[in-house]
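Q: Fold this one first, please.
A: Sequence and structure below.
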Amino acid sequence: MIVDPPRTGLDDKLLDTILSYVPEKMVYVSCNVSTLARDLVKLVKVYDLQYIQSVDMFPHTARTEAVVKLVKKIKNQLH
């Protein structure tokens, strides 16, 4: 699954749906690290954060995108 939410991050309904179905892998593309951090607090309960990379999509500005790869945790690792 790939998500690329607006600056407000994932809405509660979508986040609840993701946490209910827990796809094996997920890529989260974010333009707001604050809402990314907020969403990751919930997502890391069922996902391992495997990779995070900042990408400068808008040269000569302070804006960057963050790309995060999440992989479903093995059942005995769930919190």
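Q: Good. Now the second chain.
A: Here it is, same layout.
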Amino acid sequence: MDNNNYFRSKPPSMNFVHSDVKTQGKKVSEENIWNTLEITKEKRSPPYHTDIIWVQNPLQQLINNELQRDMPAATLDILGSIQHPNNEECGIRDVWAHNLEDEFRTIRQIVQKYQYVAMDTEFPGVVARPIGEFRSSADYQYQMLRCNVDLLRIIQLGLTFLDDNGKTPGGSYTTWQFNFKFNLQEDMYAQDSIDLLTNSGIQFKKHEDEGIEPLEFAELLMTSGIVLMDNIKWLSFHSGYDFGYLIKLLTDNTLPQDENEFFDLLKLYFPTIYDVKYLMKSCKNLKGGLQEVAEQLDLERIGPQHQAGSDSLLTGMAFFKMKEMFFEDTIDDSKFSGHLYGLGTSFAVNGTSNNYATDNGDTTNSS
């Protein structure tokens, strides 16, 4: 990260009456709060913009962190004791730092036959929105995506492998769920998103202790045979944020300021992408988030909802069911490949770009 391009600034919506905040006898200085926040500063003229409005109050998050740190572990276990399907029993392989290299060795073999990769991520919500002048509503959506992906860390990535007929590998696992290092005391997040993920069975203490380092994952992903490959087809659902986090991982950098540059990177790393939410625009009567679409297609979820592994598997199942029902088993790449629902730019398989001034939808990654 280039520190020359960053500055610290209080969000305009926040005013501190006191220089210090006390939580359960612990003193939290205002300076400590802002030392954790780095906000992109761009020296550009309209239609670009330099400011953001915070959706999640960073001060409140810090207070929540202090309260959680003092909460007995047993209480945390009770709060998170909802029973969920066991991933391993569902054919979903949980990947942590200790088995990362072993699982990538398996993936390098599987992808030689199973060349459709369904993908989903879990991330800590939306904490900021850009303000300023925008060329279009789609430009606004990209700038909001960019500022949040730059500020936040990925939590989970799910990858499901399928062949040309939509069949998954015949072994013990169809899906790999990568669990990244994430620390609730140090990393930024939106509280409602963390609550949802906790209730969905995500173990944040284990992410803190055993999670994958993003750089180590990116190095293995680069040599896995699933990126930078023309024969690999990526399947996703409303996936601007999903691919935003993957581009951030692969480049070890912030996202490009311009949406066209983002799609150039997307085409480089993921030459063929089908966003199921975008395909739905051509499917009569299909609507809603991933779970609702799956129910309309009479598909049964395998594994826990709002975890990346299960969501990626359901995304792959939905794609092949839609392909059969609505597209006569043939997807026209010139119309559908390279579009991400909610963003205004795309790339076509022949290398030309299509620019849209219309809003293709909101950015909520509903599943």
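Q: Anything worth noting on the second one?
A: DSSP finds 14 helices and 14 strands in the chain.
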